[in-house]
Amino acid sequence: MATKTAAKKRGASKSKTSAKKATSKKAAVKKAPTKKATTKKATAKKKTARAKKQVWKSRAAIRLVEPGSQVDCVVCGERVKFQARMRNQQVICNIYTKGVWERVDHYHADCYKTAKQPYGKPAEKG
Asked: Is 93 a residue whose pLDDT tops 90?
């Protein structure tokens, strides 16, 4: 009896695998794209002009001096320092050479004006 039940199980497993193969063939048929769809995709893709790479330029921004600031002014050489009751401002400049960032310069707001704003009018925070 054991051989008959084993044979039945084998037969059942064969029918299950053949059913799986049949469904996978149907799925493969459904997944295959039609020729019309591929031609539409090919014609829909057009060559577009590439956007130019952004070239970074040096710029200035005016900010309040924050506590713990440890930087020196480029013009006068004095420390740009925080004072609690005085709301001092500093100008921070990002310097780029040939589109590549090089350094950051810090100025007192008055020193930047006396230097004739070498990196343009400072942008306000906003």
From this structure: yes
